């Protein structure tokens, strides 16, 4: 009767039943609050009060959506995505194309830490090309989610440095000192499981052709791109679109503010005449249309996470694992990973899960005789599990927002289910085995 477990099961069940994710989160939060003894009034006040935790993120998504629409209207992304050079690289090899997207997505975590900000700019203009090649978008969703999660797990740079730093600090706070070098030396092992899952998704599960309707906008993009090879060259508007994009990136890195970066990018495009002043109203509407849903989901997800924490069910479910282990590393390692999966699926953030579970997992791992390196694997993987596959995670919401720009991609069945199956299962297996061996 653990409130966290009940709430997460309700959220997943309602999501799989095709209930809107926002409504599923709201119902799950109420169920979790009531079963956790908070009462209806306290549950709703906690939910609403916690929504502010993702306010900046929500604003970022809406402004980035507007910037993405503005950049798309200049034609720069369509021009690049349909260039001769790119076509020579890709040819008709869909798998190569999708692996390139996974690599590009990975850069957003470490080399150029913009997280999902690139998706609304890059992916919607490529949908026409996806449709032409009959690419199964579930493979693309898997590639994008892999790029959003695997690099921060394995590489101590950008978001990865933050993730590894949290693991180091929380383990030290609970009596086990480890270095960043030790963390990086072992977390690549469970990440290797994600790579195996990605290969399976692209080369086997979603290899077959899948037909999508080509709407009028996509057809126009394809026709323009076909003529662009010989008739349309890189021009002033395209140049300022690139300036706006890189300036938005520079502002984010310098000031740590996505909303400010997106706003400056829109300002540059307006001042330079790349977009018209009178078009700003329509751009904002289109930006809200593209990214407004994900913005609201992130707001609700922050409140939902607060309700989950307030029930005290997280501590309870972790403590209950201790009584089931009986001194067995074999059973203990598996249960620790599964509990991490449940907690992260509910909270929606791997970075926020580490502090919650480390307080119990570090002493528990020591009592079971796990080595420091094995403990790193258990804590790091338990925190990351569920980032892929969670309906409330931006690692799934981001890809869905880009791939569903034409209304032909379902968030739950085309992003969450594929990424859950192909990434969480191999993550558990690789981490479990590695923790027992190391």
From TrEMBL:
Which residue range or ranges hold the Putative Na+/H+ antiporter N-terminal domain? 2-82
Q: How does it sit in the membrane?
A: Multi-pass membrane protein
Q: Which residues cross the membrane?
A: 12-38, 58-80, 92-108, 114-131, 143-167, 187-206, 261-278, 290-310, 330-361, 368-386, 420-437
Which residues, by range, are in coiled-coil regions? none
Q: Which UniProt keywords apply?
A: Cell membrane, Membrane, Transmembrane, Transmembrane helix
Task: Report the residue ranges that make up the Na+/H+ antiporter NhaC-like C-terminal domain in this protein.
Answer: 144-432
Which compartments is it annotated to reside in?
Cell membrane
Q: Please give an example of a GO cellular component term from this record.
A: plasma membrane
Main location group: membrane
What protein name is recorded for this chain? Sodium:proton antiporter
């Amino acid at each position: 009767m653990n409130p966290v477990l009940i709430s997460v099961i309700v959220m997943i069940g309602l999501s799989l039943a095709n209930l809107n994710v926002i409504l599923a989160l709201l119902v799950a939060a109420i169920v979790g609050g009531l079963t956790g003894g908070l009462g209806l009034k306290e549950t709703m006040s906690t939910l609403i009060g916690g929504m502010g935790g993702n306010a900046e993120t929500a604003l970022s998504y809406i402004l980035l959506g507007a910037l993405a629409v503005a950049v798309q209207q200049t034609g720069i992304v369509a021009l690049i995505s349909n260039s001769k050079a790119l076509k020579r690289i890709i040819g008709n090899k869909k798998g190569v194309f999708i692996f390139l997207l996974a690599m590009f997505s990975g850069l957003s975590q470490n080399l150029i830490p913009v997280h999902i900000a690139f998706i609304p700019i890059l992916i919607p203009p490529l949908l026409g090309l996806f449709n032409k090649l009959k690419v199964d978008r579930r493979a693309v969703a898997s590639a994008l989610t892999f790029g959003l999660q695997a690099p921060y797990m394995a590489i101590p740079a950008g978001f990865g440095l933050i993730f590894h730093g949290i693991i180091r600090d929380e383990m030290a706070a609970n009596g086990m000192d480890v270095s960043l070098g030790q963390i990086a030396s072992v977390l690549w092992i469970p990440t290797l499981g994600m790579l195996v899952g990605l290969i399976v998704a692209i080369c086997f599960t979603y290899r077959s052709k899948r037909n999508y309707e080509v709407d009028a906008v996509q057809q126009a993009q394809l026709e323009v791109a076909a003529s662009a090879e010989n008739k349309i060259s890189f021009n002033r508007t395209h140049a300022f679109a690139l300036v706006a994009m890189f300036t938005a990136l520079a502002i984010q890195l310098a000031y740590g503010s996505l909303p400010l970066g997106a706003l400056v990018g829109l300002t540059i495009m307006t001042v330079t005449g790349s977009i018209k002043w009178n078009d700003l109203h329509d751009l904002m509407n289109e930006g809200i249309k593209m990214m407004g849903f994900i913005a609201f989901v992130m707001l609700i997800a922050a409140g939902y996470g607060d309700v989950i924490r307030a029930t005290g069910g997280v501590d309870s479910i972790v403590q209950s694992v201790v009584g089931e282990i009986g001194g067995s590393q074999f059973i203990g390692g598996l249960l620790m990973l599964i509990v991490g999966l449940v907690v992260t699926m509910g909270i929606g953030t791997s970075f926020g899960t580490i502090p919650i579970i480390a307080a119990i997992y570090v002493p528990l791992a020591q009592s079971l005789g796990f080595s420091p390196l094995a403990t790193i694997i258990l804590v790091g993987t338990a925190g990351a599990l569920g980032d892929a596959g969670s309906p409330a995670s931006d690692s799934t919401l981001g890809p869905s927002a880009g791939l569903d720009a034409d209304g032909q991609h379902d968030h739950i069945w085309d992003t969450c289910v594929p990424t859950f199956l192909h990434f969480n299962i191999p993550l558990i297996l690789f981490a479990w085995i590695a923790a027992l061996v190391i």
